Amino acid sequence: MSINLSTLPAKDKNKIELDKQASFLVWKLREAKASPEEITRSADKIQDPDERSMFLESIAKYKRIMGLG
C-alpha cells in the first residue's frame, strides 16, 4: 500500500519534516559534525509547543536508535 504524502494536511507534512530534521541532526551529532547546542537552537526556533515537543521526542528516539542515549 502506498501513501501519497502530498495529499496529507499541512500539519502532518510538517510533522514528517520535523522528524526528518531530527534524524539528520542526531546523525550529524553522531558523526561529530554538530554539537548538542545545534539541537537546542533548532528546537528553540519551533514556535508551536506541540511541534517542539514532537521534535524533541524524535530527537530522543533517534538518539536511542543511533546509540547515543
The backbone outline, from C-alpha atoms, is: globular
Profile the largest sheet.
none
- Percentage of β-strand residues: under 5%
By secondary-structure content and strand pairing, the structural class works out as: mainly alpha
Number of helices: 3
Task: Give, in order, the helices and strands.
Answer: HHH
Mean pLDDT: 95
Q: Can you tell me about this structure?
A:
This protein has 69 residues and is mainly alpha-helical. It is built from 3 helices and no strands. The protein has helices at residues 10-30, 36-45, 49-65. The chain is globular.
Short description:
With 69 residues, this protein is an all-alpha fold. 70% of the residues lie in helices and 0% in strands.
What's the SSE blueprint?
Layout (H helix, E strand, L loop, with lengths): L9 H21 L5 H10 L3 H17 L4
Helix pairs in contact: 1-3
Pfam families: DUF3283
Protein name: DUF3283 family protein
GO molecular function: DNA binding; DNA-directed DNA polymerase activity
List key phrases describing it:
mainly alpha, 70% helix, 0% strand, 69 residues
